[in-house]
């Protein structure tokens, strides 16, 4: 009779919606950017202090891995930047109606795809 | 601390499948997968399936659940009262989104209709959740008019039509908890974050021209947990069955606090 109350299911059952998906990707990209920036600082420091060490390290990594890391980092940066503009506008009380939230969400996704194609279409 | 997974005794198992009548006789078949948990035995929660004939009952999902209780399984527990979206009792998670069962039509849902209790709440029995913390958050924002003295003419505190209009979109809240229990931030901090419903009401009193404690209210909310656990995810506005906008009210609160500093 005196059983502990179970917690009702949450993440397991809640429908993924544009609102929550864009929010969690924003946070995820923020974490990627933080770790990426720390890595970048370490890499630059090592590159300056021990150029030979860096060269031997860099030459032993296959090209596709460095390209993949660069694509992932730029994707996180572009998405976080685009969606960050949305958050700044919301803090100024702009675009908070549900229809505008969805519209701006689709604009962010569209702009993200366009900018990624432009960036990597030029570089690759 | 956020718990992303259900603990051992909250994990949901598969239950049984019941049919209202032989499948050949069902004209408009619809299957409801309903979360069941009974405090009187030691079993985990489970999903029971009920295949019913929609032509036997009213159009709303609440009609279907009442029909199942009346005709198939009288032990199923849920809250309901007004059956027209005014009381907020029958809020539940319907196929992944928090809604009032009395406002949703069974025919609008494709496939199986999944019925769960409001997310991340302690379950009392089946679809009935313990709402204590939700009501505590509401009382925490002191949801009543606070003034220092009565009007000189002895009548009520009056308000211009323009000031009264500022409360539209705020006072209509029925405290069904659809918004708060759709919010991941509220899931992870149910003890410290007030949640969209209580914050919408907090703004309702901050925006009221008759209230004299605006500053005190804003100062109370200026806290990294009470208000600022809101990360503008917007699931609340997406969930509200009354088409209110808690996320906007919270943004207004943040703005007002900003001007206070």
Descriptive overview:
The complex is a heterodimer of chains A (124) and B (261). Chain A is mostly helical and 124 residues long. In chain A, 77% of the residues lie in helices and 0% in strands. Chain A is built from four helices and no strands. Chain A has helices at residues 18-49, 51-59, 63-91, 98-123. In chain A, helix 1 packs across helix 3 (63-91). The longest helix of chain A has 32 residues, at 18-49. The termini of chain A are far apart. The mean pLDDT of chain A is 93. Chain B is of the alpha/beta class. Chain B has helices spanning 61-71, 132-140, 161-165, 184-188, 195-206, 214-221, 235-239, 246-260; strands spanning 13-19, 29-36, 46-53, 91-94, 97-100, 113-116, 123-125, 128-129. In chain B, the strands form two sheets. In chain B, strands 1-3-2-6-4-5 form a six-stranded mixed sheet, covered by helices on one side. In chain B, helix 2 packs parallel to helix 5, helix 5 (195-206) packs across helix 8 and helix 6 crosses helix 8. In chain B, 39% of the residues are buried. The chains are: A mainly alpha (124), B alpha/beta (261). At the A-B interface, helix 1 and helix 3 of A face helix 7 and helix 8 of B.
Distinctive features:
heterodimer, A: 124 residues, mainly alpha, 4 helices, B: 261 residues, alpha/beta, 6-stranded mixed β-sheet, two-stranded antiparallel sheet, 8 helices
